[in-house]
């Protein structure tokens, strides 16, 4: 279910993206959704892990973001859980992104979905892929922090 944080309720988060990529810049984009998708998002029936963003004809589309329909979905609607969904951003921002994505090694990755003023927003990042040794460093840092927290916790008992 969505959690309240910084005035916006989080719907879903792509934790795998932070492990696989270095984030250069972050952007917020609106999403074009159908009614059944909004209802499914309210129930938390979404998965972002395999999602990525592409630019087609000067428009942004999120691909691989899976929104599973509710069992109570209407019979006259044919829900497609893996369809590509359009992202809404200003033209000048998209033009800037096109220039950066065409550079070597940059890609657009969805980081999270959240509610903002009753609308679904997708936070995307201009990202560069991590090498294998960078991923190992990330794991080492995370485990080091975990050990320090354990030591502090046992000391306070």
UniProtKB/TrEMBL annotation:
Keywords: Cytoplasm, RNA-binding
Keyword Cytoplasm attributed: yes
GO biological process assignments: trans-translation; trans-translation-dependent protein tagging
Transmembrane region(s): none
A Gene Ontology molecular function term of the record: RNA binding
Principal place of residence: cytoplasm
GO cellular component: cytosol
Role of this protein: Required for rescue of stalled ribosomes mediated by trans-translation. Binds to transfer-messenger RNA (tmRNA), required for stable association of tmRNA with ribosomes. tmRNA and SmpB together mimic tRNA shape, replacing the anticodon stem-loop with SmpB. tmRNA is encoded by the ssrA gene; the 2 termini fold to resemble tRNA(Ala) and it encodes a 'tag peptide', a short internal open reading frame. During trans-translation Ala-aminoacylated tmRNA acts like a tRNA, entering the A-site of stalled ribosomes, displacing the stalled mRNA.
Protein name: SsrA-binding protein
High-level lineage: Bacteria, Pseudomonadati, Pseudomonadota, Betaproteobacteria, Burkholderiales
């Amino acid at each position: 279910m969505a959690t309240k944080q910084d005035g916006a309720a989080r719907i879903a988060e792509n934790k795998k993206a932070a492990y696989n990529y270095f984030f250069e810049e972050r952007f917020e984009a609106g999403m074009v959704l159908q009614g059944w998708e909004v209802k499914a998002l309210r129930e938390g029936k979404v998965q972002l892990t395999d999602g990525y963003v592409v630019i087609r004809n000067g428009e942004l589309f999120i691909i691989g973001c899976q929104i599973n329909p509710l069992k109570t979905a209407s019979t006259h609607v044919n829900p497609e859980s893996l369809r590509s969904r359009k992202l809404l951003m200003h033209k000048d921002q998209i033009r800037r992104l096109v220039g950066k994505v065409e550079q070597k090694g940059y890609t657009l990755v969805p980081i999270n979905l959240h509610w903002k003023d009753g609308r679904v927003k997708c936070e995307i990042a201009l990202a560069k892929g991590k090498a294998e040794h960078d991923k190992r460093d990330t794991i080492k840092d995370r485990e080091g922090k975990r050990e320090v927290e354990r030591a502090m916790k046992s000391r306070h008992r």
